[in-house]
Amino acid sequence: MAGDPIGELVALFARLPGIGERTATRLAFFVLESPPELASGLGEALSKLHDRVKRCRTCGNFGADELCNICRDPRRDASIVCVVARVPDLVAIERSGAFRGRYHVLHGLLAPLDGIHPENLPIAELRERVEREGVRELVVATPLTVEGEATALYLADVFGDSGVEVTRIASGMPHGGELEFTDQVTLGRALAGRKKV
Amino acid sequence: MAGDPIGELVALFARLPGIGERTATRLAFFVLESPPELASGLGEALSKLHDRVKRCRTCGNFGADELCNICRDPRRDASIVCVVARVPDLVAIERSGAFRGRYHVLHGLLAPLDGIHPENLPIAELRERVEREGVRELVVATPLTVEGEATALYLADVFGDSGVEVTRIASGMPHGGELEFTDQVTLGRALAGRKKV
């Protein structure tokens, strides 16, 4: 006997988000019935992942080097910095093509009840960066949740008298949204934030 | 520069069934943001998968040894063998708890148009096994598809005059099925296969 290799793989797949035991079983058998290159390729990519991926020393974005692609790109506007909670949020903003500045990834949000206080987030680094790089505007793109809003308010407070402008991404109806199916908070914000046409 | 480790992992995840690029991206970031043990554990399980998993030399089931758990279990009835196309089908039957015999996994179905002929499936091995182990009944549990039915008919033909009884799993309404939403073929089979109450 040498353990239960399929069962172990199923249990590990089932730890991924959105993957239950049934899907995990299907994935395990798919890999097993595929040419071994898939399993070995995926195995190697995963095994080396944390060694190969580095956090950018300036902004916290993931990348293959000390400095991420965005911080290394001289065409990106260094005077405007978008603050995000997680790298996937940065990726989503990049996909929109609507932002040409740089980023600062907090890798978390303020959550005092979970023990996440300002000193647990790279906010001192952000302050230092604002001074060093002459940042004019911080666009706070944390999520529109309780913790995201609390973090945005905290940042506005911290940078309130530093001369840097702290802005917040707009809140309102999503593109293509139907009023009938929009929640009350979103509708209320959309009305409060109305603009002259 | 050292490649794009996250992009490579996303591309590999996206090769798994039911996982598109968006889900693959979410999985990659989840692994990246989890403790490294998840990535290394999954990486090792995948890298060693094909070395650790063996095909049972008797029935073709996957297992950690030369002989699978079922073929090694003396309480399983060796005189009745259930023929399945794939190991996940065997797993599903085992989960039902309705079968106490042994299995024969074809790892495929007859599909002449795709170049899969009888000699590409372990049918000679099955014939030899029937003789050697004194099998009395072959329960053909291939799927109720064109290829599954063709394979069942072929097996019935091959074993027609060998004294072994070849049976086919029943076709009819699934448990909990509503007549209103059942397809015509299934309804037709359910009617044709009706039994005295």
Task: Please tell me about this protein's structure.
With 197 residues, chain A is an alpha/beta fold. The first copy, chain A, has 2 domains: 5-52, Helicase, Ruva Protein, domain 3 (Orthogonal Bundle), CATH 1.10.8; 75-168, Dna Topoisomerase Vi A Subunit, Chain: A, domain 2 (3-Layer(aba) Sandwich), CATH 3.40.1360. Helices cover 43% and strands 13% of the residues of chain A. Chain A has 9 helices and 6 strands. Chain A has helices at residues 5-13, 21-33, 36-47, 49-52, 69-72, 87-96, 123-133, 146-158, 184-192; strands at 54-55, 62-63, 77-84, 101-105, 137-140, 165-168. In chain A, the strands form 2 sheets. A 4-stranded parallel sheet of chain A has the order 4-3-5-6. In chain A, helix 1 (5-13) crosses helix 2 (21-33). The radius of gyration of chain A is 21 Å and the shape is globular. The model of chain A has no long low-confidence stretch (mean pLDDT 92). At the A-B interface, helix 1, helix 2, helix 3, helix 4 and helix 6 of A face helix 1, helix 2, helix 3, helix 4 and helix 6 of B.
Estimate percent helicity of chain A: 40-55%
Kindly report the spatial arrangement of strands forming the biggest sheet of chain A: 4-3-5-6
Q: Enter the CATH topology name of the largest domain in chain A.
A: Dna Topoisomerase Vi A Subunit, Chain: A, domain 2
Task: List low-pLDDT spans of chain A.
Answer: none
Question: Based on helices, strands and strand pairing, what is the structural class of chain A?
Answer: alpha/beta
